[in-house]
Amino acid sequence: MPRSVNSVASRVRRKKILKLTKGNFLARANVWTVAKNTYEKGLTYAYRDRKTKKRNFRALWIQRINAAARQHGMNYSDFMGRLAKNNVGLNRKVLADLAMNNPQAFEAIINSVK
After folding, report:
1. Are 32 and 18 in contact (CB under 8 A)?
2. In sequence order, which residues have a C-beta less than 8 Å from that of residue 92 and are 6 or more positions away?
3. Rounded to an integer, what distance in angstroms lies between the CA atom of residue 57 and that of residue 92?
4. What tens digit of pLDDT does each residue of 66-85 get?
5. I want to staple 34 with a disulfide (CB 3.0 to 4.6 A). Which of 10, 20, 27, 88 is the partner?
6. Residues 39, 17: contact at Cβ < 8 Å?
7. pLDDT score for 4
8. What is the CATH number of domain 8-113?
9. CA 58 to chain centre
10. Long-range contacts of 61-68 (CB under 8 A, 24+ apart)
11. Mean pLDDT throughout 2-17?
């Protein structure tokens, strides 16, 4: 008896992956095996970079806070230490936003911990 293969389901599965790789270059968008590898690698990068993004943003916030604190004669380490000592409950994201968009408020925080 001949082997029966569900070609309809196979085609649907392949078309789904090819649709997801539509914007890629040359064979990465058209050739099934290359497109499948590209798609799987992309999922791996997406998982990894969701964690990397958090790291990068924290580093950016620290740089912004450091730059703003130095304009007022204090470095990042001293500033964060004094915030902790005075129980100021602002996180780095909020502090960086204040430093960039509301310098007067950031200056008020600096003066409160000096």
Report:
1. yes
2. 58, 61, 62, 65
3. 10
4. 999 999 999 999 999 999 99
5. 27
6. yes
7. 83
8. 1.10.1900.20
9. 10
10. 61/92, 61/93, 61/95, 61/96, 62/92, 62/96, 64/96, 64/99, 64/100, 65/92, 65/95, 65/96, 65/99, 67/99, 68/99, 68/100, 68/103, 68/106
11. 91
pTM over 0.90: no
CA 8 – CA 71 distance, rounded (Å): 66
C-alpha dihedral sign at 107, 89, 70, 81: positive
CA dihedral sign of residues 48, 54, 58, 60: positive
Q: What percent of the chain has pLDDT over 90?
A: 91
CA distance 34 to 71: 52
With b for 16 or more beta-carbon neighbours within 10 A and e for fewer, the 53-88 pattern comes to eeeeeeeebeebbbebbeeeebebeebbebbeeeee
| pLDDT at site 5 | 87
pLDDT tens sequence across 21-37: 999 999 999 999 999 99
Confidence of residue 62 (pLDDT cuts 50, 70, 90): very high
Residue type, 24: N
